[in-house]
Write a structure and sequence with these properties.
By secondary structure, the chain is α+β, with helices and mostly antiparallel strands. The protein contains 9 helices and 10 strands. The N and C termini lie far apart (about 55 Å). GO terms for molecular function: ubiquitin protein ligase activity; zinc ion binding.
């Protein structure tokens, strides 16, 4: 039998819904705040149990709070995911057909790239090749800005990658639609877009997972095949 939803659970869900995604430390603060306001039992290490209770009540609504990781710094994030629709179609109510096509093409570039990024130049060059309706570059720039604001894409120095929210929401879609290119991290087993790959056996690891895994090793060796890890370890001086 599912644990009872309290007003603390409802408040937590409401705030998360308004944010769409929340960093782990913010979610922990919110958990404490909701429990204190509604005078229900609070334990600092029980956030995942608290969320499990919410998820058991969201199940009939085909929704779920999922935990994921930022590929930049390895921090945990929580996002509310709609399971009833395929991930791209759930964007359809917010964007026009040619905007969705631009997003799909951007996703292709990012996932099929070696480093998990696509340059703004490459993306904007696609704007006048759209099958639905061609887009002027100025218009495409504006659309990309909206994708960043809506947390589907992240942008850094003119390079775009998938936002943490997008990876959490679209993991299953990406794994089934990009079977030859998409891979799971060998360490945390979640989808890895920005990753390093073993030259010998081809396994991939998130950059924060690479940093953590090799931290204590004098000579970095692949966790799968034990061959020397030839990529530079992020955060270490070579």
């Amino acid at each position: 039998m599912a644990a009872q939803m309290t007003d603390a659970h409802r408040r937590f869900l409401q705030v998360l819904m308004s944010h769409g995604i929340m960093e782990g430390s913010e979610a922990r603060k919110l958990h404490k705040c909701c429990c204190e306001i509604h005078k229900v039992y609070y334990a600092h290490d029980k956030l995942d149990d608290f969320i499990s209770t919410i998820n058991s009540h969201l199940q009939p609504l085909f929704m779920q709070i999922r935990k994921g990781m930022s590929e930049d710094d390895g921090r945990a994030h929580y996002a509310l995911v709609n399971l009833a629709e395929t991930e791209i179609t759930k964007m359809a109510s917010d964007y026009t057909e040619n905007e969705l096509e631009l997003f799909r093409k951007t996703m292709d570039l990012i996932i099929l790239s070696e480093n998990g990024f696509a340059s703004s130049t490459d993306i904007l060059n696609l704007a006048d090749q759209l099958k639905t309706k061609k887009m002027k570059k100025k218009e495409a720039e504006q659309v990309l800005k909206v994708f960043v604001e809506d947390k589907w894409l992240s942008e850094r120095n003119g390079e775009y990658t998938l936002h943490t929210r997008c990876i959490i929401e679209m993991e299953q879609y990406i794994l089934s639609n990009y079977q030859d290119a998409a891979r799971k991290c060998n360490i945390c087993h979640s989808l890895a877009i920005q990753s390093q790959v073993c030259d010998s056996c081809g396994i991939g690891m998130h950059l924060p997972c690479v940093r953590k895994y090799f931290r204590a090793q004098a000579e970095p060796r692949c966790p799968q095949c034990n061959d020397f890890w030839s990529s530079d370890i992020p955060g270490t001086k070579q």
